[in-house]
Structures are given as structure tokens and as C-alpha cells.
Amino acid sequence: MEPVTTPSIQIRNTTVKELDSVSLNCSSNDTEISIHWLFNGQSLELTDRMKLSLDNRTLSIDPVKREDSGKYQCEVSNPVSSERSDPIQLDIIVLVTTPSVQVSTTTVKELDSVSLTCSSNDTGISIHWLFNGQSLGLTNRTKLSLDNSTLIIDLVRREDAGEYQCEVSNPVSSERSDPIQLAILALLPKPSITSNNSNPMEGEDSVAFTCEPETENTSYLWRRNGQSLSEGDRLKLSEGNRTLTLLSVVRNDTGDYECETRNPVSTSRSDPFTLNITYGPDDPIISPSNTYFRSRRNLSLSCQAASNPPALYSWFVNGELLSSSQELFIQNITTNNSGSYTCFIYNSVTGLNKTIVKNIEVLEPVTKPSILVSNTTVKELDSVSLNCSSNDTGISIHWLFNGQSLELTDRMKLSLDNSILSIDPVKREDSGKYQCEVSNPVSSDRSDPILLDIIADPTQGSSGLSGGAIAGIVVGSVAGVTLIAALAYFLCF
Predict the structure, then answer these.
(1) Which of 50, 194, 336, 343 is the most exposed place for a label (fewest CB within 10 A)?
(2) Which of 93, 111, 145 is the last residue in one of the domains?
């Protein structure tokens, strides 16, 4: 059998418009051959748009698409040889898609520059620009990039405002972009704020701010202390936001207000307008909160109340004016300084006032108590009473055992005023050191410890075991000795 000769591909046109059809014919002088098709050097995978003749000589593609572009070959073979044709490059010319015009902003400040870019996914195209539907005539202020894709306009003027389009084309088609409307705007002047009331009273007045001047095609924004404001229950904005109204002002409305004007190409902000809300005084607080104070110490009281402007303060002690300041200071107080302390607060702008009264009691520090007991050595199962003796009045009494707070058992009782601790009957675990502590709201002191010694009851035995238990131990011991002796006997004999 002869080897096969090199085949060739016959085609009417290697450049085909997308969606048309094409046929490729594998030409060979050999007989009894097999024919196989390749695409870009790989075995061709047929799609639903491709068909082969019965002998595989003719490959038809209908319709062609851009992905069909590439190198086609046919391979002929017989049982002893095979040969491939030279590749045929098939180019699919694609219909151009609709381009779009990209621009950073469609509103441009006069005398600035602007760039418009024609964006297209197509290659091998020509680009042409239009203005208001007509071919764009270039001026000394307009420039085009080398491929015409970018249009630059320097020192824009009002006459440059209008609709811009780009048109892309190839040998078989053309498409225009949607128009882009370019607006040319002037700079905004610096705004200012006017107000109908710059010093309103909390809960009584409303305030209206107006942003001046009024300009066309302008949006208005409001800020307080740098934060953007929006309409709410007490905050109302006029149509267009040029007027801001605060209904029934509160102290939190205090601050610096600014209005900002905007158009698509410029922004301008007013100087701050400071709104001062008068309020108060609120309910005052006297600190510290203590009502009891120790004698021979200094007394320092402070009266606080939120108020704008700051309130005037006066102190009255038992009805007598003692000080006209926010702080009250009395050196080396005694029990004679006990009484009613009144702080009076007045706001001269709002005309409101508030009063708070604090009753103060000056106390002497407690003296050291002592414990009285008839006998510190007590026989077990007897009773004992310890009496906490103090010359002070209005005191609290607390008992301690071995330096710790005493935990009462069912054998212990305290008198109503806690001054007497009774233990009945005493047990040896009650032995230890007893103290009493006396206290008032400003001081406390402990007695010296009393050592209570509990003598065991002889009838209880030193071992603490009952007679029956001792007898049981004796009997058990005798039995153990007998058992050991018997065991020894059997082992030896």
C-alpha cells in the first residue's frame, strides 16, 4: 500500500462575517482514506452548529461565531501513513457592539477641563465623535487621543454644554453610544446663616435658621457640631432644606450650626452659627452624700446643679445665710454644727430657682468599751454572761470570738441592745478570747479581749468515752489475748 499524500483545504473565503455560514473542503488524491479535522492543532470537537459530510471531507459551520476564528487542518490516513494539510486561518469579523461614553462627572465647573472616553469591547474599529447629533468640529480647546477613543476639552465654556456621543465602526457594521449630557456650572458663593432667636430658653422657644442666599439648582445640607442633621420629631426642614426649624429647643440643641450648599461641581459651607440654649437650674445635688460627720474635723460641702448661664448659689444653716458660693467650708466642727443645711440656686436669665435641704448630724467618736464578766473561768455546763460596757449612746454593738465575728449557736443569746452575751450551758469549745465592738456612723472601737476558760466536768471523763464504751474495750482486749494464746498452743503442739 502506498503512503498518503499531503491534503489541502479548499475554502471560498477565509474572512467571514459573524452569523454567516462557511464550508471547508479537504482535498486529497488518495483513495480508501480516513479524514479527521483539527482546530488550532487539536482534534476538532463538533458543536451543534457544525456538520460533516458522510466521508468527512466537507466541514460546514452555520452560523459562524467569533469563537470559530482560528487555524483549521484536515488529516488523511490509511493503515500505513497519515498526513496533515497546511493550516487555514479562518477570521470571523464580528458586528460591533454598542459603545458607551465614560466621563468622571457630567457636570463640570466652567474653565475646568473634562475627558470623555469611548468605551468599546471591539477591536479593529474606527471611532468618531458627535455633538448634539452632529459630527463634532474640533477647536483649539478640544483634543483627541491617537485612536480617537478619548476626547479632551480644556477650559470648558457654557457653549460646550450638550449631548456627546461616540460612533464605532468596522467594515461590516457601526453603532452609536447613548448620548451623555454635559452640564457646565458656575461656583457657588459662600453661604451665611440668619436666625430668628440666637439665645432661646429650653422648653419655651423655637428657633428657625435660614441659609442665605437662595440659588438655583442648589441643594442645602445642615450640620451641628460637624454632624449631619436630618428631619425628626422636633427638627423640621423646609422644602429644599433651606430653612431648619428647631421646635421647643432643649439643651442638647446647643452648638455650632453650619449650612452647606452644593451643586454638581462645587460645595460651599457657612461660618459656624453658635446657638446658646438657656436652661435650669436642674434639681441640685449636695456632695458628699453623708449625713453624719465626725466632730473636730473640717466640713466641706459642694452644691451642684446643671444651669446655663451658671447659677448663683447660697448656703443657709438652720435658716441663717452662711455663704454665697457653690462650696461651703467649716473648720473644726462640733456637735453644735448639727442642723439643717440648705442650698439655694438661682438662674438670673431663666428666672428659675431650686432648693435642696440636707440634715447633718455631727457626732463624737465612740470611746473604747470594756467587757464585764463575773468569772473568766467557768465550769463546763454552767452558764456565763458577758456585758459590753460603754459610756456612749446611739451605738451599735457587735461581738467577736478569737478575732472573728461571733457566730451565735443555740446556746447563745443576746440582749435587745446586744450589750449582753449569755451562754447556757457553756462547753469547752466556748473557750477563747471575746471582744465587743461599739460603733456609730462616724467611728468604731473594740474592747480589750477577755479570755474565757472552760473547765471540763470530771463526770464526763478525760477520755470523753462512756463507761459502757470502756467496758467494751476491756472485754475485747481480754478476748483478743485468749485467742492469741490458743493459736500459739496449736502451733507448738
Answers:
(1) 336
(2) 93
